[in-house]
Amino acid sequence: MTSRLLMTLQVVVGPPQKLGAVPQGTRVVAPITSGSFEGPRLRGKVLPGGGDWTLLRSDGVLELDLRITMETDDGALIYLTSFGLRHGPPEVLAALARGESVDPSKYYFRTAPRFETSASQYGFLNQLIAISSGDRRASGPIYTIEEIL
Amino acid sequence: MTSRPLMTVRIAAAPPQKLGTVPHGIRSIVPVTGGDFDGPRLRGKVLPGGGDWLLLRADGVLELDLRITLETDDHALIYMKFQGLRHGPPDVIAALRRGEVVDPARYYFRTLPSFETSTDKYAFLNRIISVGVGEARPNGAVHRIEEIE
């Protein structure tokens, strides 16, 4: 299996909305307030209004369910959804929860982004499978997204 | 990004149920009748009863939406689902529709499998993101699935 860099995406997260224990786990909704993305074939900003509907499962795995709208520097809109998983050793997750910077190789944080756009110059995004590696920062995560070739 | 082989799944399918043109595209439902899988850490058979809910989109891309149950050789049940995309040059896609065997390097067929199991031995499947490279066969498909590390 081969892949190539599609883009680096950084999202800025607002104050989390802690819904607490729901039947499926512990639900926290993280509003996305802004952000940016850049890659060999596209770049631009993240529009406010999206969010990440995170669910901490009973097995300790955090499920991520991100939905955002991206706007390219030439004015195209791209809808991104991304399902992901994050887990790691308890002390590493505790450090992340305290907002500390942690080497992302010390935990598992992988997602599968999907794209929708009507802009013909970005139509290739509708037709690819991608995966990303996440790096959780205090202000919000950074995703390195690769296209599966 | 690094990955390692997880398993190869060979799926046997019944003739498609052709629903025709629906609001999202052209819908075909392919019942799964059986199959098998094997990899370094697990092997077994595909139980009958699953299916692939295919949607041919207006842009010529075939969306896959598969749900099957796997049974390992030591009798654990694993729910596997994936979404995927298949597309390629018109002559290659036409050959696939005629049921011919085509070199899978000539078309794009990629999936994002995920798993659910209650068996401790296979619980690692609950915690990984994975990618499949598909190969269409006249009466089914073969998916080579890699775990994203």
Write a compact overview of the structure shown.
The complex is a heterodimer of chains A (149) and B (149). Chain A has 149 residues and is mainly beta.
Task: Provide tags for this entry.
heterodimer, A: 149 residues, mainly beta, Porin, ten-stranded antiparallel beta sheet, 1 helix, 60% strand, globular, B: 149 residues
What's the arrangement of secondary structure elements?
The complex is a heterodimer of chains A (149) and B (149).
Chain A: E1 3-13, E2 17-22, E3 25-38, E4 43-46, E5 50-56, E6 62-72, E7 77-87, H1 90-97, E8 108-116, E9 130-137, E10 140-148
Antiparallel strand pairs in A: 1-3, 1-10, 2-3, 3-4, 3-5, 4-6, 5-6, 6-7, 7-8, 8-9, 9-10
Chain B: E1 3-13, E2 17-22, E3 25-38, E4 43-46, E5 51-56, E6 62-72, E7 77-87, H1 90-97, E8 108-116, E9 130-137, E10 140-148
Antiparallel strand pairs in B: 1-3, 1-10, 2-3, 3-4, 3-5, 4-6, 5-6, 6-7, 7-8, 8-9, 9-10
Question: Could you describe the 3D structure shown?
Answer:
The complex is a heterodimer of chains A (149) and B (149). Chain A has 149 residues and is mainly beta. Chain A has a single domain, classed as Porin. Helix content of chain A is 5%, strand content 60%. Chain A has one helix spanning 90-97, and strands at 3-13, 17-22, 25-38, 43-46, 50-56, 62-72, 77-87, 108-116, 130-137, 140-148. In chain A, a hairpin with a 2-residue loop joins strand 2 and strand 3. The longest helix of chain A has 8 residues, at 90-97. Chain A starts with a strand and ends with a strand. Chain B is mostly beta strands and 149 residues long. Chain B has a single domain (3-148), classed as Porin (Beta Barrel). Chain B has one helix and ten strands. Chain B has one helix at residues 90-97; strands at 3-13, 17-22, 25-38, 43-46, 51-56, 62-72, 77-87, 108-116, 130-137, 140-148. In chain B, a hairpin with a 5-residue loop joins strand 5 (51-56) and strand 6. Chains A and B meet through strand 7 and strand 8 of A and strand 7 and strand 8 of B.
